[in-house]
Task: structure prediction
Amino acid sequence: MPYVLPYKKMKKTSVYLSEPEVTRLRELAHREGISQAEVIRKAIASYQPRPRVDREFAMARSGRGPGGSVADIPEKELLKGFGERR
Result:
């Protein structure tokens, strides 16, 4: 007996896919013995978005060091070696 979904109210939608995506969808449906629509529904159900990076704290703790300011370093020392080839 073929797999039958429990009744769910569904809406029709269209999805644009590239040729390789169409081929992969067709192969997955054939291999699993389910419809292409069911492959897409399963993919959507299992999709886990990547967590967003909190941009306010992206640089937190990136400046570990002695705690001084670059403004306290003499300019001559900052430019030491600048423009020289190694």
About this structure: The chain has a mean pLDDT of 84. Helices lie at 19-32, 36-46, 75-78. Residues 14-47 form one domain.
